[in-house]
Amino acid sequence: MSAAPRNPSLSDVEFIDPTPMPDSIPKVDEIGATSAPLQSAAFFIGAYCKEYNEDFMLCKNENNDPAHCLKEGRKVTRCAIDLLRKLREHCDKEFEAHWTCLDLNNQEYHRCRAPERKFNACVMSALKLEKYIPDSPANKPQIHLKEKPLYY
Fold it and tell me: What InterPro entries does UniProt report for this protein, alphabetically (predicted)?
């Protein structure tokens, strides 16, 4: 009795970019993270890479051609990779606890406030980065700083 033919899975496929980047575009590694670590670090990436992000957005507003802003986009990617390495170096345990919680709780921040507080404290202490959530009410504390936040 022979085994049924195996259908190739996505992991069997080797992806090769058929159109390599021109030499004028600087090479950059992929970030290589799933959504949970990126969401956990998102506000810190925003603070740490603010200048690069702003340059990229200004560039995008200049021209609709995706190739126009590749250099700026790659700077944003390099910056995010740099921060993720620093988070792993200085706050690995807290970072992993927070993103694992997000991963197990449908990416919902409110379910992960306890590990988030520990992660935020580590990042603020080790890397001197503040977490700020845009468009939060100016006269109220940020949601991640509240001891007993109410959810609706």
Answer: NDUFA8
54's CB contacts (< 8 A; 6+ apart) are none
Q: Long-range pairs for 106-115 at CB < 8 Å and ≥24 separation? A: 107/35, 107/36, 107/39, 109/143, 109/144, 110/149, 110/151, 113/144, 113/149
Spatial separation of the C-alpha atoms in residues 98 and 39, rounded to whole Å: 10
Q: 18-33 as b/e, with b when 16 or more CB fall inside 10 Å?
A: eeeeeeeeeebeeeee
Q: What DSSP state is assigned to residue 106?
A: T
Is residue 148 classed as helix, strand or coil in its secondary structure? Answer: coil
Of 45, 134, 131, 43, the residue nearest 85 (C-alpha): 45
